[in-house]
Design goal:
Layout lengths: L7 E6 L5 H12 L2 E4 H14 L10 H7 L5 E6 L4 E6 L2 E2 L7 H10 L3 H14 L5 E5 L2 H5 L5 E6 L2 H14 L6 H17 L12 E4 L5 H16 L1
Parallel strand pairs: 1-6, 1-7, 2-6, 7-8
Antiparallel strand pairs: 3-4, 4-5
Helix pairs in contact: 1-9, 2-4, 2-5, 7-8
The structure holds 2'-deoxycytidine-5'-monophosphate.
2'-deoxycytidine-5'-monophosphate binds next to helix 2 and helix 4.
Length: 231
């Protein structure tokens, strides 16, 4: 793989679609860097929550914007996970960004223009040498409109809710399937209808519906697309 031209692989799509699992497998196969951009929006949200800038009851977008210069986001590769862990101002935050408080507030934080501008610039910097697989909502449309390979992932909302429900149940969470399904549907809507950089398929993106595909099947499909681009 080393002597092949390095490209940017943009993976966009709905939440709980298996984007990260797929992107991680691609990065391992090609020796690329995997960047989870959702983790970056979650990191800004975590900082705002932990520093009392926002709370469940109060949301002050201006205060979040004022805090932005004080938020430093970095990644460090964790060989055990086969992916990079996120750090906020040098502090490990990988697990805290997945908590329910962050999940509940991240859509609002990610719809603030200045937050997006800061994170998009950082993402462009991280990918400037290419050789990256980046997953998110606006990678193929805004961050890297010139990405050589763009994939738009979809999966049936019920299938996604079932996957998410199984994960939460395994963690001992008492939510019902209906609550999870409702959350999946409302997040889809928020992602697609927000004013700035809404989730949409780039004109040149290839669609992958993985509702009934294993990771192995997805990888076999991916390698065909990759070979067509890189040769
Ligand atoms: O992929 P995720 O669920 O961890 O993403 C968390 C949130 O961040 C989700 O509400 C969508 C938003 N997001 C975004 O607006 N743009 C991206 N490139 C990635 C995520």
């Amino acid at each position: 793989m080393e002597n092949k031209k390095k490209i940017i692989i943009a993976i966009d799509g709905f939440s709980s679609c298996g984007k990260s699992t797929f992107a991680k497998a691609i990065a391992a196969q090609l020796g690329y860097i995997f960047i989870d951009t959702g983790a970056m929006y979650r990191a800004v949200t975590l900082y705002a929550l932990e520093n009392g800038i926002i709370s469940g009851a109060e949301f002050n977008a201006e205060a979040v914007v004022e805090a932005l210069p004080h938020i430093n986001i970095s990644f460090k590769f964790n060989p055990q996970r086969g992916a990079s862990d996120i750090y906020v101002n040098g502090e490990y935050a990988e697990e805290r960004i997945r908590g329910i408080d962050v999940s509940n507030m991240v859509s609002r934080v990610s719809s603030i223009r200045e937050v997006r501008e800061k994170l998009v610039a950082l993402q462009q910097q991280m990918g400037h040498e290419r050789g990256v697989v980046m997953d998110g909502r606006d990678i193929g449309t805004v961050v890297f409109p010139d990405a050589e390979l763009k994939i738009y992932m979809t999966a049936d909302a019920r299938v996604r809710a079932e996957r998410r429900y199984a994960e939460l149940k395994a963690k001992g969470d008492g939510v019902t399937f209906e609550q999870v399904l409702e959350n999946v549907i409302s997040r889809d809507k928020a992602d697609m209808t927000r004013a700035i950089s809404p989730l949409r398929r780039a004109d040149d993106a290839i669609e992958l519906d993985n509702s009934y595909m294993s990771v192995e099947e997805q990888m076999a499909w991916f390698m065909k697309q990759y070979e067509q681009v890189v040769g």
